[in-house]
# Entry
Amino acid sequence: MAVEIILAAARIAAATKAGLWGDRTLLDHFDAACRAAPDKVAVTGYNSSRGRTVTLSYRQLDRLSRKAAAGLARMGVAKGDVVSAIIPNWCEFPLVHLACLRIGAVTNPLMHILRQRELAFMLKLAQSKVLIVPRSFRDFDYPGMIAGLRPDLPDLRRVLVIDGDGDDSFEQALLQAPEQDAASVAALFAARRLNANEPVEILYTSGTTGEPKGVMHTSNTLLSSLAPCRRRMCLSADDVVLMASPLAHQTGFIYGMMLAFHLGAKLVLQDIWNAEQAAKLIADEGVSFTMASTPFLSDLSNAAGTQAHDLGSLRVFIAAGAPIPQVLVSRAETALGARIMSGWGMTENGLATVTGLDDPEDKVSRTDGRAFENMEVRVVGTAGEPLPANAEGRLQARGPGNFVGYLKRPQFYEVDAEGWFETGDIARMDESGFIRICGRSKDIIIRGGENIPVIEVEQLLYRHPAVSEVAVVAKPDARLGERACAFIALRPGCSLSFDEMSAFLAGHRITRQYIPEYLCIVDELPHTATGKIQKFALRQRAQALQAQGPR
# Structure
């Protein structure tokens, strides 16, 4: 299958002329790192299914990825074909992506939490030629699940199983196969070499809205944010990158795997999140940089206070995906000794805004940063007109990091003639260009014609000593259109009544109409695997709730 992207010649010409795009792929950066320090550790990670740590040098990863590439080609994977992979944060993930790049295949990472319904749709839409799965992860039988789907997937030629047996073993089929003639393999790679404007990744949206779409990227769109990231975070080959966010999510894919190889640095992988283990990895591996969602930061800060590990190497933690309560910023910087930075991005454009190392604490907790030097963001009104500073409206983004379409769904590609992408986020921007995400357009609560500032209500509730996590969503109402409902997970041993919540918010002098009229205490909020709260699921649950406040 030839993956059809939306990429006009004019966009290529403009980005190339501006020096924002070039002719390099991740392979060029990886090969350069391999030549510079072949015996340096490229990737190390604990495989919880095997119960052991796997470490590969740049030389070893290069050799294995070349063998895997030749093996995939031998199986009939052609240039432009899709190779799908359900691989946790294991060394096999970067190995597979490098192999795909060498033969011009498109990598389609799939989250390990996906099951039959989602996978049947995604694999069929992508016309995946090969699927790679673990034999088991978190006690789930992936080969058994896929066996039931194969009759409905006519394009799927092979399913390879990591730690599998027989012909379907990933190791036997790709890594342990006899060496092929070096000249023919070199000729194969040369013939399949990708240019930087061909598709290399299809990544389905994470599911916070309940409707995944296949986001397509090229080498240029993916690589474009790495040099600005390196400069803003002062990163180099001497840094060590920890990635606990899944590599099958853009955070892990770009700011874990790609960033490490772009720098020629060491990548440390964690397949199952555990704050105590993360602290140990930071100490043992000398981790200096990581990026994850706010719950990861909170957990790690708590663990730092109870662990004896030396976390002095950790220099930068970028928290993205959810606002950072101000109290957490102060607590995290004290506990970790690192600079905490906030950022905003999407599967469609990677990390587009982020604070700087020297920005004050209130910018970290009260904003989502400002655009990288090669990205633009703006806030517009209902008619698309740019709004003044601090006015709330639709957030748009433009720049070299923007994606090149949704797989087979061009009708959803909301990019105008000037290149502005409609993000679906509601935001405001201050006089200095710092943005604050106020919610998704679907998260807006309009009560009796008045917008409720969801993020501000949530931030206030985070200050309550009993609150661990909170999400405020809309519940349809026949009279007012919508009313606010607060879903709250409590800290251990704490309680919170509706009246106590209302009094707490009233004590902060919040507008009475903004106080949620429903409270639902839950054990935990539903999240994507990357830590984003699934508000669409909470909106569904809110339908059955009865009003607790004045109507």
